[in-house]
């Protein structure tokens, strides 16, 4: 099917569901993203389209289990002809990769949001699989959004034996075909993301074949020998440990950014270590404000 004919069919299907196509946005793997507007509600959304029923099923199964401000929300889904449509909340087509080098304070805010979202996924036994600067986006409010879950899976056990390469910079143990801990593999991806935010480049070559990639990974150590003053160098070195058993954990990275968990009766409160509790006076009563990231803490203090 030609691109023109396919787009015409997609437009017709969306039109039948009261959505006007605004413009194509981008593609990630087998997923295509299009900006749409609902005619009745006059709201903008992003429509994700995939031809693979399996990916459609996996993503919607994953997203139905989790709800987090830094994970994209699903509003509607439907299947017609050979296409599968998922209507998502609107976000800007701006990935961390497009931004490049990020100022120090923003690195802190983005990192805390990424860590909170990753921990949320991990608590539900979800391995994302393709976490990278290309798959993390920012909405119009400057909030991080995990958008793409086409390679995600539920991990009932500690180790995984699915060795497909789902990102350009996979953890070494996946390339080597060693049964791997998905949490440790995601922490390798966190290292890739943090390094990119600090430097605007990647620490190693993209994966093309195992031998070249592993040689490139071994050279990562030399980067820090010549750049001792690099921002967050200490934690990056630990995130790039080729041995997953000694690689930095999510808790290690949380401590670097001063993120602590305060246990409340109903839920945990994620805040910067300098803030224990924020309260506001409402109707002559003091009520706690639940702030789930450093970004929210900063935003709140800027507003009062």
UniProtKB/TrEMBL annotation:
Keywords: Kinase, Transferase
GO molecular function: ATP binding; protein serine/threonine kinase activity
InterPro entries: Kinase-like_dom_sf, Prot_kinase_dom
Gene3D superfamilies on file: Transferase(Phosphotransferase) domain 1
UniProt key word Kinase: yes
Source species, domain of life: Eukaryota
Matching PANTHER family: PROTEIN KINASE DOMAIN-CONTAINING PROTEIN, SERINE/THREONINE-PROTEIN KINASE NEK
Identification of the protein by name: AGC family protein kinase
Originating organism: Trichomonas vaginalis (strain ATCC PRA-98 / G3)
Highest classification ranks of the organism: Eukaryota, Metamonada, Parabasalia, Trichomonadida, Trichomonadidae
